[in-house]
Amino acid sequence: MMMQLVVLSALVAVALAAPQQQSYTTPIPIIRLQNDASPDGTYQFSYETGNGIVAQEQGQLKNVGTQDEANSVVGSFSYTGPDSVQYSVQYTADDNGFLAQGVHLPTPPPIPAELAKALEAAARLPDPNDGGQYQPNLYGNNGR
């Protein structure tokens, strides 16, 4: 019984150690590629692949040489999903962050009118960090 267990274990080990069948995929060709970069920090690129992916992007440096220097990018890409639907995304990325838009992307619900009014009213309130000093210009009487 013990010998059969050893032989069975050895057979399982040999079977698991056998080289696995490699699955190769056909490389996707690049049909079109354009890439231009300038010394001033501007650039643009675009490409199209054999499986229908298309992408393009342009970028530039804003506020060059300052502490607020940042990239400003505009671009888009499209592809066919596994469900055979064509998906397209347009995006911007700058000092305000990344913003992507596409009909398939979720969007936040609208802000209810009551909440919008409350936010506007709160924005008009005086700064709570005013140092405790009376500020007549906030109350329209200029100190009189």
UniProtKB/TrEMBL annotation:
Keywords: Cuticle, Signal. InterPro entries: Cuticle_Struct_Prot (IPR050468), Insect_cuticle (IPR000618). Residues 132-144 have a biased composition (Polar residues). Residues 123-144 are annotated as: Disordered. GO terms for molecular function: structural constituent of chitin-based larval cuticle. GO terms for cellular component: chitin-based extracellular matrix. Residues 1-17 form the signal peptide. PROSITE patterns: CHIT_BIND_RR_2. It comes from the Eukaryota. Pfam families: Chitin_bind_4. This is Endocuticle structural glycoprotein SgAbd-4-like isoform X1. It comes from Frankliniella occidentalis.
